[in-house]
Description:
Radius of gyration: 28 Å
Structural class: mainly alpha
Amino acid sequence: xxxxxxxxxxxxxxxxxxxxxxxxxxxxxxxxxxxxxxxxxxxxxxxxxxxxxxxxxxxxxxxxxxxxxxxxxxxxxxxxxxxxxxxxxxxxxxxxxxxxxxxxxxxxxxxxxxxxxxxxxxxxxxxxxxxxxxxxxxxxxxxxxxxxxxxxxxxxxxxxxxxxxxxxxxxxxxxxxxxxxxxxxxxxxxxxxxxxxxxxxxxxxxxxxxxxxxxxxxxxxxxxxxxxxxxxxxxxxxxxxxxxxxxxxxxxxxxxxxxxxxxxxxxxxxxxxxxxxxxxxxxxxxxxxxxxxxxxxxxxxxxxxxxxxxxxxxxxxxxxxxxxxxxxxxxxxxxxxxxxxxxxxxxxxxxxxxxxxxxxxxxxxxxxxxxxxxxxxxxxxxxxxxxxxxxxxxxxxxxxxxxxxxxxxxxxxxxxxxxxxxxxxxxxxxxxxxxxxxxxxxxxxxxxxxxxxxxxxxxxxxxxxxxxxxxxxxxxxxxxxxxxxxxxxxxxxxxxxxxxxxxxxxxxxxxxxxxxxxxxxxxxxxxxxxxxxxxxxxxxx
Length: 541
């Protein structure tokens, strides 16, 4: 049984490493390894304390890679690994797994541990990249392995183990498998980020930032009089600077018993979450019941009789229409997008439309980001729904790719405008034409982004994580050039250009895919055509 468990774990890890998303995350990781360690002449800093930073030695970079990588991997790694159990069910693997003697805890723990191993592989590669950057920057050429491995052991491993537990919990907990779970986890990530950066207590310090910042601040206060040792540590972000940043030598974190106990708490929390997930796991109940239904003998007899009677039925002839009506496709896509939502979703949308009319204009800016969360589940399906349900070839046989592409795009814009119609009416009644213009630009940009990313990746994950980041940094925190709503700042021209570029990219992908499809069809047709005399040779045989 132990060897079977190891084979299951190995298979899950290899399966994840073969995906293109793993290569994408690896590329982002290597880029971060370069961007997060700027040279003195680059004109910016990522992490410094009151205008100073530590020398790029092993202690400083080992702590940097531990706290920055865990915080970033929590966001990107979750969306990369969160749907593996659901994918087993979608690919009909659940029927096989449900029939095996493997226990729920063993299956769930194997999924969690395989996710943890994938995250640790990315983490180790980033550690090696930081070692290379230490040699490249040349401020301290001595590589201290312990200075890199201790933060990895006490910060990264507990944090990533907890993240791996969350990936399986959100995949088996009822109601958290879709966009609701993605939004909820983004809120949890924001909460832990704020608690780790701004809270001096190590109890809620999931990312290990508070423990590392405290040691850095005390060392900086010993070298610079204008820094107090009692204040909260430095900041993480993009900070433009002029001239050279003052530096000091930092000797690393004092890993005392209190810090180690707080890190051990998160390891225990991860184990509890894995155990809870195994209890919530229904072992693909739908797949099991599909084979356990048995019809009585008289019902089987009636089914045979009905089948014989059905042979005498005559189907109505199919009416072929050579013209492809775009309006009919748009109407069908619109109905598919809004169909299947729960009654609570419709009530929330209706309530938000009414609230958009009642919120005062001076407070509308704080209300609009909330309004932009409801269509997330609809946007994220654009461009990839057919691949998810394996109906792509069936739908493309009914109309050209460009017609399908534009029908999804127009339907997505219409759904977005319908949900935000209360805000548009409010702007019109107030006479704010600039608000209407900026809002409509944003409403066209988001579905275009969703459709293009869904077409490129054939998945909803990349759009969801990018949109949540853009939504939090732009409309919520009003960072310059990231507020795609443009109310009232006004970056409409920028997002018109981005919308046009995304639309052109999506159209080019459709043309390329259609060309490949037609080329493959011609090739297969040519291969299936009989050569001269082939039928005569078959008849002679």
